[in-house]
Amino acid sequence: MQAAIISVGTELTTGQVVDTNAAWLAGELTQRGVQVVEHITVADDVERLANVIRRTLHESASKLMVVTGGLGPTKDDVTREAVAAAIGQPLEESTEALAQIEDFFLRLQRRMSAVDRVQAMIPRGATILPNRRGTAPGIGWIRDNGYLFALPGVPSEMKAMFVESVLPLLEGVTDKTRTLEARLHCFGIGEAKLGERLADLMNRGRNPLIGTTASGAVVTVRILATACDEAEAKSKLAADVAEVRRRLGSAVFGDAEDRLQEATARLLVRERKTVAVAESCTGGLLASSLTDVPGSSAYFLRGYVAYADQAKIDLLGVSEAMIASEGAVSEAVARAMAVGCRDASGADLALSITGIAGPSGGIPPEKPVGLVYIGLVDSTGVQVKRFLFGEHLSRDQVRDRSCKAALNLLRLRLLEGGAA
Amino acid sequence: MQAAIISVGTELTTGQVVDTNAAWLAGELTQRGVQVVEHITVADDVERLANVIRRTLHESASKLMVVTGGLGPTKDDVTREAVAAAIGQPLEESTEALAQIEDFFLRLQRRMSAVDRVQAMIPRGATILPNRRGTAPGIGWIRDNGYLFALPGVPSEMKAMFVESVLPLLEGVTDKTRTLEARLHCFGIGEAKLGERLADLMNRGRNPLIGTTASGAVVTVRILATACDEAEAKSKLAADVAEVRRRLGSAVFGDAEDRLQEATARLLVRERKTVAVAESCTGGLLASSLTDVPGSSAYFLRGYVAYADQAKIDLLGVSEAMIASEGAVSEAVARAMAVGCRDASGADLALSITGIAGPSGGIPPEKPVGLVYIGLVDSTGVQVKRFLFGEHLSRDQVRDRSCKAALNLLRLRLLEGGAA
User: Fold this and answer.
1) Separation CA B411–CA B188 (nearest Å)
2) What total number of domains does chain B contain?
3) Is the pLDDT of residue A231 over 70?
4) How many CB atoms lie within 10 A of CB B266?
């Protein structure tokens, strides 16, 4: 089966926004053996969009067309009109769609404005695709000549609707060939060194195909296994996943959508340990990553964002003299912050971060931007590590690297089962 | 002048890579008054690509076509062939192109392989676009019926070639027409209601062209002004920006790349106010957004991530009895957290957030997931607002909306100059 993806939006054709929906949809369809032959992006222009849809419908190749965007309530949302024109059906207010929209506003206890009502206009004979995450329902048009789906442009709404409403309708038409993907995420190892360990598995044309990508200091190993059916693809994939994990050991912290915080959270729960954090330059980012995992109340007790020196003194009992002599960004202060945090919170483990995120505030050569001290304390003692993330990194990058390094320190300690 | 952008690559049509070239080119062309009417992405398939190029050439609308990708030396690079087929010219080895390629390898002191030689094959009569950053020269085809340019897919090579070789060839045809863009970001107003207020400005074909997009509860008004020269475009744009700001008032928090934290930070600095925060469900996210603005130490004193009940009691003096009777997610606790935070920190303003981020922990109907109380206290008193973000939102979305709502509350208070 062949497919075309159409993205609608003047913000896309003028280059103000990069379209990520098309790539996501293409990935989902490709996995299921659908060959995506074309992505087309058009402005919020009803005639042009209608023409593109008509043209694509009549190119016998594309039996499946997925349109995203342009379903909202405002004047520049032209997809409803364009689809109706292309399939030659009048737009009619759907009581079913209207009920869904009204229900959405009801659930949010918000007033539905008159303008929102236009989102209930659906081409006669079309299927309504419910939108649990937003107001605009999707549109499905299924005829012997093919499948046409119009989904919202908001990625979260589009993805949910595709999975919940579109895929079930496509069952059976997508063929059995499967390409399955696994991703293993690593931290604390460079992409080059990792590449050496996997060199013999990374030849082009090999199946499974193995590649690596690095982003934000996390190196991801991507494994693509193709087979004539799902079961075989699964076993091919499982074998390589096991081999890669064996070679990389504890550098692998997780798979799929795991981030360091999910990996660390799992270990905290498994070891039944609680944690508290004291942060300066990361300003709450570490606490926020530890608590963005559902169920974090099982292990996260509290966080101190001791940004000003006075806060370090009041909240964590860091001595004013120490800050004066060593400076707020020092091994001694990181140590004192971690110890003070554990004592005050009663947590099993405490992490501290103090550093210079920049862009200003660095005092090279001793204390350049990107200098960060991270402390970890548990019943077995205190450990402080010094990091030089480099002045070429942005403030956001230094803060991000600092959090990841702290989470990884905690993760490795929990793996050792060191915390008593 | 109208243009079409064509991106070539199976890695794009299968969704392995997100195409950023098309957006960059669209931005460059839009700025120069060229209307980009379509982006098309096709796989490495010579017939299909040739058909798309032919189709686009004959759509009289598009006088300009820019193709990126598929110029490399490997078998899956099909753009040379496709362009030749589409314009009906044979491919010939160009001594000029060959010399450029050989020179490139010489400069890098690398040996040129036999495979690289194919990159010197150019359609008869085409213009060669030099590639200073890579091996594959670009192809230009300029005839009365329009302009066709084929550029490499590597972004750095593509951008350099576009600026150095394509723009000069377009001089005169892109005339002086300029399209300038402004974006105004709004919070606390729905896209539909905003659309009502701007309805008469949002008619299609109007110049400036005004559209809206919503993302993460932020609604952005996009204004595109086109005029026959830069000065006129600027004044057209300025007039509409002023009018939109007038109609939307304090709902507009910033423009360009502003986020709520930048807007709020500017006001804190202007009003010389300090702030401290006490967070439960957002777990440090609010502190982290207030501190991810450079120079935040000027206004941010400290943050309490009072996640466990005991932390609320120890750090903020919330009474155990109140938590028992009202529950940790209640107006009373939000109020006590804000007051306790201001007292302990000595900040001019203090914000508190307590809520149910989910996915579990909700007790409908009284306390569903997405129920959040936000407190704001300054010398003039305490204000607590109740939010129902809706159970359809993910944990991340509830946390994100809560932070934005808190920042907006602070922003509006600072605008009133209320804080003493």
Assistant:
1) 12
2) 3
3) yes
4) 16
Of B191, B306, B396, the CB nearest to A72: B191
Q: A35 with A151, same domain?
A: yes
Q: Does residue A104 share a domain with residue A21?
A: yes
User: If you compute the radius of gyration of chain A from its CA atoms, what whole number of angstroms results?
Assistant: 27
Q: Do B30 and A43 touch (CB under 8 A)?
A: no
Could B18 and A15 be called an inter-chain contact, meaning their C-beta atoms sit closer than 8 Å? no
Q: Identify the residue whose tokens are 């995450």.
A: A133
A106 lies in the same domain as A240: no
Out of A323-332, B24-33, B260-269, least confident range: B24-33
Whether the predicted pLDDT of A391 surpasses 60: yes
Please give the pLDDT value at position B394: 92
The residue out of A170, A191, A206 marking a domain boundary is A170
Q: Is A302 within 8 Å of B305 when comparing Cβ atoms?
A: yes
Taking only the tens place, the pLDDT of each residue in A117-129 is 999 999 999 999 9
Taking the Cβ of residue B298 and every Cβ of chain A, the question of whether any pair is shorter than 8 Å is answered with: no
Domain boundary, last residue among A193, A228, A255 = A255
Whether chain B has a CB inside 8 Å of the CB on A387: the answer is no
Q: Strands A275-279, A300-305: parallel, antiparallel or unpaired by DSSP?
A: parallel
My answer on whether B196 and B68 are in the same domain is no
- Contacts A–B by Cβ distance under 8 A: 282
Residue A256, SS3 per DSSP: coil
Give the C-alpha separation, A115 to A118, whole Å.
6
Same domain? A329 vs A266: yes
CATH number of the domain to which A342 belongs:
3.90.950.20
Residues A313 and A400 both lie in one domain? yes
Give the Cα separation of B308 and B316 in Å (integer).
Answer: 12
Q: How far is A417 from chain B (nearest CA, A)?
A: 24
What's A118's domain CATH number?
3.40.980.10
Nearest CA in chain B to A344: B314
**Domain span holding position B137:** 2-170
Going by C-alpha positions, the residue among B293, B278, B178 that lies closest to residue B229 is B178
CA-to-CA dists, residue B10 to A39, B77, B153, angstroms: 11, 10, 12
**Cα B411 to Cα B265: distance, rounded to the nearest angstrom:** 9
Residue A420 domain flag: no
Residue appearing with tokens 């550093």: A355
DSSP per-residue letters across B301-323:
EEEEEE-SHHHHHHHH---HHHH
Question: If you average pLDDT over every residue of chain A, what do you get?
Answer: 92
| Beta bridge partners of residue A185, listed in sequence order | A220, A254
- pLDDT tops 60 at residue B418: no
A420 pLDDT tier (thresholds 50, 70, 90): very low
DSSP assignment, residue A165? I
Within a domain: B420:
no
Tell me the β-bridge partners of B385.
B374
Rounded Cα–Cα distance for residues B346 and B341 (Å): 8
> Residue B420's pLDDT is what?
43
pTM confidence score? 0.77
**Strand ranges across the sheet with B218-227:** B209-215, B218-227, B178-187, B252-255
The percentage of residues in chain A with a pLDDT greater than 70, rounded to a whole number, is 98
**Residue B142 sits in the same domain as residue B264:** no
